[in-house]
Amino acid sequence: MQMPEPDKATLARRGEIVAALRSIVPGGKMGGEGVIDAPEEMKAYESDGLTAYRTLPMIVVLPETTEQVSAVLRYCHENKVKVVPRGAGTSLSGGALPLADGVLLGMGKFNRVLDIDYDNRCAVVQPGVTNLGITTAVQEKGFYYAPDPSSQIACTIGGNVAENSGGVHCLKYGLTTNNVLGVKMVLIDGTVVRIGGRHLDAEGYDLLGAVIGSEGLLGVVTEVAVRILQKPATARAVLLGFPTSESAGNCVGAIIAAGIIPGGMEMMDRPAIHAAEDFVHAGYPRDVEALLIVELDGPEVEVDHLIARVAEIAAANGAVYNRVSESEAERLNFWAGRKAAFPAVGRISPDYYCMDGTIPRGRLPEVLARMTELSNQYGLRVANVFHAGDGNLHPLILYDANKPGELEKAEEFGSDILRLCVEVGGVLTGEHGVGVEKRDLMPAMFSEVDLAQQQRLKCAFDPDGLLNPGKVFPQLHRCAELGRMHIHRGQVPFPDLPRF
To answer: Rounded distance, CA 16 to CA 81, Å?
Structure first.
């Protein structure tokens, strides 16, 4: 994995840059540093959740106001210094991996809920508020924030916006892009803009759609207006066990084909089931090869009816286990096992590599079978935990980084899984983003023309390529190169088109 070569001229000016940034962010109102430049103190920022890759940042800056963010970006723009925005650092794709010649802009001090507007069913929060923190702030009135990644206790809303995070309930309630109404964002030249607001979609270009999932390449978000929902009257979860992963995959497609949209529908295979049960004791059956957790929510009579229909569909697809939650505590316990699956798998392997790809639901049985073949080919175990309802796979490749060559083998295995996702009509990522992990696989999904168009959007916001460079795009082009027009024999392409 190659990152841009550090700029020697920038590194030579490090002392000058540190002094300038300290004048902008001298420290917090409640104490603490505003700028960190000691190598031993910056170690905490050398990687994000993808810990296989590490780089010590040149400088860490911890602003706490939009004005400070604006001043920092303006200085970096004027002095051609690269900037990597960082939230809680839970990214699993290396999206917040620092640069040796760049400023790491930590947004952890932006941690306040600014306003709760129940009449308009929205809340305005700073990007450092945790995902779960939004729900905690509004639950006394019976509201909640729908996206709920497994890391929701730690991941922040700013990171959710950057990666377009989802969670176990995104099948029915959508990902971050479906639950954010507006943002305040600072551009690389220090300009502060508002996109969207406390209202439904605005007319004109969908700039909010471009910002959500942009992985810190377009600007730095300092305020987010999110949609909050009333909790459903009833919610019950069903555990369904199957003799094979393929039969569980067939059941997923059959439930959706029947017109049933569960609040969540998750799948775990045998290794993940046993790891989660040993860790959480959620009451999962140990004698099945695959487990579906299906949650139905809504009015009580509707939920009862849907549970009966799901039971019929599951039986027709070979289910050998069926258990319905009988209390709210039991429902939450079912989900506790699923949400703790990642740390649980960490107890059975020295290391694991968490993948993220999305496929059409109908290809689920085929893809699971081919992943088993790949597991045998590479000699590495894999535990499957994923959002079955929307086809978002999270295979966990188990390896030992202390064994020479195993990390590289795990990376090759993961690349083959992602290529398989694209091959069957899916995409490289569902909610973890591209970052550095999938960057060099982008040509497997996009043509050169597609990638050039995406980079032109990047250039419109950041013409000097200073924001989070080295991420997402497999080959960096200068914006001037992308803007060049080929002239053949004195003629521009399509000379009849009006040009401005």
So the answer is: 12
Alpha-carbon distance of 494 to 487, in angstroms, equals: 11
Query: Nearest-CA neighbor of 190 among 105, 68, 85?
Result: 68
Choose one of 343, 366, 398: the last residue of a domain: 343
Question: What mean pLDDT do residues 215-243 have?
Answer: 97
Q: Residue 76: which domain range?
A: 8-106
Fill in the amino acid letter for 354.
C
Question: Is 50 exceeded by the pLDDT of residue 30?
Answer: yes
Residue 460 domain-assigned (yes or no)? no
**Domain membership flag for residue 451:** no
128 and 221 part of one domain: yes
Q: Return mean pLDDT, the chain.
A: 92
- In the numeric block, which tokens belong to residue 65? 């106001």
Judged by DSSP in three states, 323 sits in strand
Q: How many CB atoms lie within 10 A of CB 490?
A: 5
d(C-alpha 105, C-alpha 34), whole Å: 10
Examine the domain organization and report whether 322 and 357 are in the same domain. no
Has residue 492 got a pLDDT over 60? Answer: no
Q: Which residue has the tokens 């040149």?
A: 58
DSSP code string of 179-244:
TEEEEEEE-TTS-EEEEE-SSSPPSSS-HHHHHTT-TTSS-EEEEEEEE-EEPPSEEEEEEEEESS
pTM, two decimal places: 0.90
Number of domains in the chain: 4
Q: Say yes or no to pLDDT of 483 above 80.
A: no
**124 and 61 within one domain:** no
Question: Is residue 327 domain-shared with residue 378, that is, in the same domain?
Answer: no
% helix, strand, coil for the chain, step of 5: 40, 20, 40
User: Could you tell me what percent of the chain has a pLDDT over 70?
Assistant: 94
Q: Do both 247 and 336 map to the same domain?
A: yes
What pLDDT, on the 0 to 100 scale, is given for residue 489? 60
209 located within any domain: yes
Cα distance between residue 40 and residue 253, in whole Å: 51
Tell me which of 106, 128, 160 is where a domain ends.
Answer: 106
122-125 vs 220-227, strand pairing mode: antiparallel
Residue 37 in 3-state DSSP?
coil
| Contact in structure between 174 and 167 (CB atoms under 8 Å) | no
